[in-house]
Amino acid sequence: MNQVTNTVRFVLDGQIVEAQGERRTTTVLDYLREQMHRTGTKEGCAEGDCGACVIMVGELNAKGDGIDYVPVNSCIQLLPSLDGKSIKTVESLKKADGSLHPVQQEMIACHGSQCGFCTPGIVMSLVNLVQVVPQPSRQQITDSLSGNLCRCTGYKPIIEAATKACHKPELLKVEDSADLPLLREIQRAKTPTLSLEGDIIVQPVVRTRKGNEVVSPATLTEVADYLVKNPTTTLLAGSTEVGLQVNKQFFRPDHIMYLGNVDELRQVNETAAAWRIGAAVSLAQVEQIVAESYPDFAEVLRRFGSPPIRSTATLAGNIANGSPIGDSMPCLMALGTDLILRHGDSTRTVALDQFYTGQKQNVLKPGEFIEAVVLPKPNGKRVFRAHKVSKRFEQDISATCAAMAFELKDGKLHQVRLAYNGLAPSPCRAPKLEAVLEGKAPSEVTAADLDAAIADSFVARDGLRATWTYRSLVARNLVLEFIEEPAAEVA
Ligand SMILES: Cc1cc2nc3c(=O)[nH]c(=O)nc-3n(C[C@H](O)[C@H](O)[C@H](O)COP(=O)(O)OP(=O)(O)OC[C@H]3O[C@@H](n4cnc5c(N)ncnc54)[C@H](O)[C@@H]3O)c2cc1C
Ligand code: FES
Ligand code: FES
To answer: Which pTM does this prediction carry?
Structure first.
C-alpha cells in the first residue's frame, strides 16, 4: 500500500473509496459533499464549533477483529488523514429495508428536530456514543452533545430521544461487517520502505505537480528522517488547529506529515513514576488516564472543546501550538511535566515550563518535534487542583485556567507549583506567587499579597475574552480556593 500516490483510500459502507487527484488540503467534509454528494453532512461554521459536520471515523481495533469509532468534525479534518480508515456518515445509518437507526427514529418520535440543519450531526454524535456506551447516563448524553449546537429545538427532546433509543440495545450497533475485511486490506505498511542504497523513502499519500506532498508514515524512524530532510514540514496530529488555519486563513503548507498512523507515537507507556504519552495520543485517551489520579485535570479536559475535538486533538498539538490560552499546559506545568524532543536519532528532555520563549515561540529547532509528553504520577503527598474559567461551561475558550500542586507539611504549603494560561504571551508558571505561598499556612495567605505578586508578574492587558481586572481577580481567587479545601481537611 505504501506505493499508492495521489490516492487516498478509505472504506465507506462496504466499499473502498479511492479519492484521486484531490488537493492536499481538501477537507473530509468538502470531499463528502462535493465529490460523493453525501450532503446529509452539513457545513455550519467550518471551524469545529457547531457539530453540523460530525461523522464517525473507524480504525481496526487492537485485535484486528472489529472497528473502533470516534466522532470527528469532518470540516477540519484533511482528506489524506482518512487514508487507511473507514467512515460512517448519516446516510450510512439507513438499513437496506429502509428502517432508520433507533436514534433517528426517536428523534422523529420525540420531536427532536425542527429546521433539521443540526440534526445529522446530533444523530452522529449520539450514534457514536451508543457504540461505546449502550446505556449512557444523562451526563454522558449531554457531554456527547457538547459540541453540537441546535438553535431551534432545545435539547430536552433530543436528550429524551437519546434515552429512549437505548431501550433497543440490539439495534444500536452500526452495520460494518462488510467494512472490516476491506479495512484490513487498505492498511498501510508498518515498516519503512528503503531505497537500493538503504535510505528511507516516505511515500506520499498525495503529491502535487509542484512537488508538495502529504505523507503519512507508520514509524517513528520515518518521521524523524523525513523531518531532518524536510524541516519546514507542517506536522498534522489531530488537525484541530491546522484544519482551522486551512479553512479560515487559507494556510497551504508545502509539505504535511500526518502523525496519526505512527504506532510508537500512539502509545502510552507507564512506569511507577510517570506516564509517557506519545505525541499522537488523543485528549480523549488522556482524559481517561488522568481521571482517577488527577480529577481536576480530567475536568479541565472534559471542558476542552467537545468530544469530536478531543477524539483527535492531542496534548503534543496543544503544547506545540502554544496558544496563550491553551488549557492543558497549566495543569501539565503544575505537575512538573517534561517533553521528549526528537531530532533525527537524538532526543533531549525539556521541562515544559522551559519550552516557551515567547508568544507561540518555543525551543524546537528546525526538524525537531515533540515525541512524547512525560506526566508524573501522583506521589501520595502532593495535592493537585485546577480550574478553567470561561464564559460558557462547555466548548468555550478560557478567560483563565489555573493549576496548582503543593504539599502540606505541618499545615504549611511546600514545593508549590502554580501555573496559568491567559495572563501572559504563553502559558507559564508564576514564581512570584509561588514564593508568596511557600512555607505559609493557608490561613496566612492574604488576597493583598497575591494581588501584589500578580501585578508584579504580569503585564496588565485587556483581552477579547476578559478584561485584566477580571482575569487578575480570577487568578487570585482560584489560588485562595485551591488552598482553602486542603486546609479544611487537615484542620
Ligand atoms: C472547536 C474547537 C475547540 C477548542 N477548544 C479548546 C479548548 O477548550 N482548550 C484549548 O486549549 N484548545 C482548544 N482548541 C484548540 C485545539 O483543539 C488544541 O490546541 C489541540 O490540542 C491541538 O491539537 P491537535 O493534535 O489537533 O493539533 P494540530 O492541529 O494537528 O497541530 C497544532 C500545531 O502543533 C504542531 N504539532 C502537532 N504535533 C506536533 C508534534 N508532535 N511536535 C511538534 N509540533 C507538533 C502542528 O504542526 C501545528 O502547528 C479548540 C479547537 C477547536 C477547533
Ligand atoms: S461545520 Fe461546524 S463543526 Fe464542522
Ligand atoms: S433543528 Fe434547527 S438548528 Fe437544530
So the answer is: 0.96
